[in-house]
């Protein structure tokens, strides 16, 4: 094998590859096509193909291999710094890949849903990669009045993006809890209206208990009791509706027949389709590895609350620090309108004795 074939992709080129990939989703057809051309040229230089992109996006898990590659190009990088080629847009240089946008883009390509549903489904996909850090794993329910509304396609696309997916059109309770306990991944159930959930109490128990961390079911196996975990993210597609307890545990997306529009046909046999989705999955996996639990900073909290019209205010005189200054925080009254609009109506009403403001450090 030649020396060029053995050479690993440099850190600088991998960074540039990421930036070019972000341009593939550009609404400007010319810019997107140019990005694809540049990616192909870069892959050719390293004797790589589109099939290698997923591994390149994730990063090699062999630290010694990558360390050797970095050493090869360290001298050049010290002089180049963080410089990027002038043909890349400013946004691609300054911002890291946004995995939520990438997943949302893929969903919009193949599934017809309302704008808010794309966000909900994309967030749920990312949740599957971190579900074990949460107490609750909401079900994602695709419902429709008739067949042919895109539910199966939605599950097929999500199957390519979710964490350790297992898709099925039907299963017994025993099969389900054995798979969940062994897989510790994402369960995708199609044709749920044929499962007889209204009369099959054991199956309902498996689906409902898996909504909360610690959910389990016990069975006697070879004369000895055994506990099976049922906690796992689950997406369900059905005609009509699901039993009420399951609906209450679900993020519900109502599907309708589409008029066609600009949707692309989702075909797992199409190499270009699958290449784009391997690439996105690689970004998602790397994003998931980078997510470490930490406290929310004041700035991050402010950015999250800004879309709801909630901004920090000076708190007088309770948080007075020194002459002429005060601590900025939030009053409870600022949240009440947002709570009324976006939170469940059965929440226990606030009491007059509650603290009137929410402090920040």
Question: Could you describe the 3D structure shown?
Answer:
With 361 residues, this protein is an alpha/beta fold. The chain folds into three domains: 3-94, no CATH class; 99-290, P-loop containing nucleotide triphosphate hydrolases (Rossmann fold); 298-358, no CATH class. The protein is 45% helix and 12% strand. It has helices at residues 3-6, 11-24, 29-45, 53-58, 63-80, 90-94, 99-110, 115-128, 151-159, 173-183, 201-209, 244-248, 271-290, 298-305, 332-342; strands at 139-144, 165-168, 186-189, 216-221, 224-229, 234-239, 250-254, 313-314, 328-331, 357-358. The strands form three sheets. The protein has a five-stranded parallel sheet with strand order 2-3-6-1-7, sandwiched between helices. A three-stranded antiparallel sheet has the order 8-9-10. A two-stranded antiparallel sheet has the order 4-5. Helix 2 (11-24) runs antiparallel to helix 3 (29-45), helix 7 crosses helix 8 (115-128) and helix 7 (99-110) packs antiparallel against helix 13 (271-290). The longest helix has 20 residues, at 271-290. The chain is globular. Mean pLDDT is 76; it is low at 1-6, 60-94 and 347-361.
